[in-house]
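Two quick folds needed for the group meeting slides. Do the first one here.
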Amino acid sequence: MDQKPTLEEIRKAPKVLLHDHLDGGLRPETIVDLARESGYDRLPSTDPDNLRQWFHEAADSGSLERYLETFAHTVGVMQTREALYRVALECAEDLAADGVVYAEVRFAPEQHTSAGLGLDEVVQAVLDGFKDGSARYGIRVGTLLTAMRHQARSMEIAELAVRYRDVGVVGFDIAGAEAGYPPTRHLDAFEYLQRENAHFTIHAGEAFGLPSIWQAIQWCGADRLGHGVRIIDDIQVSPDGTAKLGRLAAYVRDKRIPLEMCPTSNLQTGAAPSIAEHPIGLLRRLYFRVTVNTDNRLMSNTSLSEEFAKLVDAFGYGWDDLQWFTVNAMKSAFIPFDERLALINGVIKPGFARLKWRAGLP
């Protein structure tokens, strides 16, 4: 077994993040500033420390619906070009400071138009922030455009994603409450994306069960699954530890469909009972294409390094496991193959090799 990596050591590792929401990762200080500048007067507190605590406690409810309500405040202050640019720039800075070398950050353009911005203006503001942040802080950030599953604008957002795919948008996503809003409601958007050779992921198997995963893959053709924790319901584990996979779970593993797992967030929304009981442990043991992610860094009061550290404590993971998760994520990114390979061989593997060498490991 590898020597147990510490949180500070993990922060130095070159990490890859595939599932992170822009409106779920704001700095509390920035929220207060933007609220004051825009006249937004509905914050539960204007003290950054109290506000941080409020977000964490409000999101820690065991309900996806209650968790999603916290976004009213972050979205509420992200309605101008200046605000969107600042949030994107600071996102790149914060991720780079945590050792992330490649990230795909998602947001829903339709939620940022209440002050008069058009969809193209919203997307351009975020792309400009990420572009400047990437250059300044030495991180590469790709953008996913998200459509809200309870709305009817998914085709419009899909077309927007295709229009901007050569200048920073790497894919498409749908998000929001799963129950009552199956991904098949947006089938026309997914068929359009497939015709355009575009990449997309779908939030599925978090608050809802196996049917949402089945629909996302077999009806909609998802390249990746956002969360996907309920795939565990299609796996039977016997007392001796052997596992029998159902047809859907076997298909997901056989096809190497990436699972964008977010351990802390899954606890908050009730999708998993504890880190130690999170399905990620079994899925890693069974060699599913598992990746580790943050989901919403503000609401979950977390970082990618902290997510890894929690898994180290819960499952005894060592450097080889953390590298395995990281390479999985880089393999699953929505950028061209040669660029993924260059990051794996030129940045990720050498970075982990240095950390293992410092720890006196082969």
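Then this one, please, same format:
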Amino acid sequence: MNTALTILIDGLSYASWLFIVALGLTLVFGVLKILNIAHGSFYALGAYAAASFVGWFATMKFAPEWSLVAMLFAAIAVAVLVAPLTERGLMRFFYGRDEVLLVLVTYALFLVLEDVTKLLWGANPYYVSEPYALFGNVEIGDQVYVGYDFMLMGLAVAIGLAVWWGLNRTRHGKIVLAVIHSEEVAASMGVNVSRVYMLAFSVGIFLAAIGGAFTAPLISVQPGVSVGVIIVSFAVVIIGGLGSIEGAAIGALIVGLARSFAVHVMPEAELFSIYIVMALVLMVRPEGLFQRIQARKI
């Protein structure tokens, strides 16, 4: 029983940050029709920025609780600085082009951002320990779990609900959905499609960055951290279905629980377990579990 509970909690914790990152990936695909290989680099920028902001807050003698605010500011800073440069300076020149070309462009951007992070932060690892200790430990039965993991689960639920509400219950969200369904019709009705692209890309980068920022206390922030993230993020959206919010949630849960089960039962199959699950889903549902008839509906 204790092992099953540990697998469940570890799986939910892993799925939480993964859902946040994958949500940004599927949102960008739904609106811009871009399979963004560089999404993992935005995650890494968020993690590095969080390490820098938390360290700066510590040197300014702020209370440890402010480290959470520092991580949020780090994610916002990445979105505000990187989104305009990337979307206006690069991506908008390739809209409507062949999908393979778009993948190659984002892959080139991924390589550039990898070197940029090394130039800015070097090759040494960074550690963000302050936020991890804020939530103490949680006792369930005779097992003790880290409270930060439960905070991360709550954050994932809050962000998922906020994105769903923003898309389905606000005027700007309905405009975004109109562009997703048909950008030509939306443009003919007076919608500024270019502005919607910028908004969606900015939100996608923010989600990747906030996923990286709040995962930083759990990992060693170092070069190469973006590679593993983009691989498992693609696994999530492939399992759930590209362009689906509920698909991203279910896909993250499946990947998180599969990985957690492998870690506790068969550690040597940790990474392989994700691909097994992805292959099984693709055999039954090649379009993903939640893919609609409208291929890019969120």
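Slide caption for protein two: The domain at 2-284 is CATH 1.10.3470 (ABC transporter involved in vitamin B12 uptake, BtuC).
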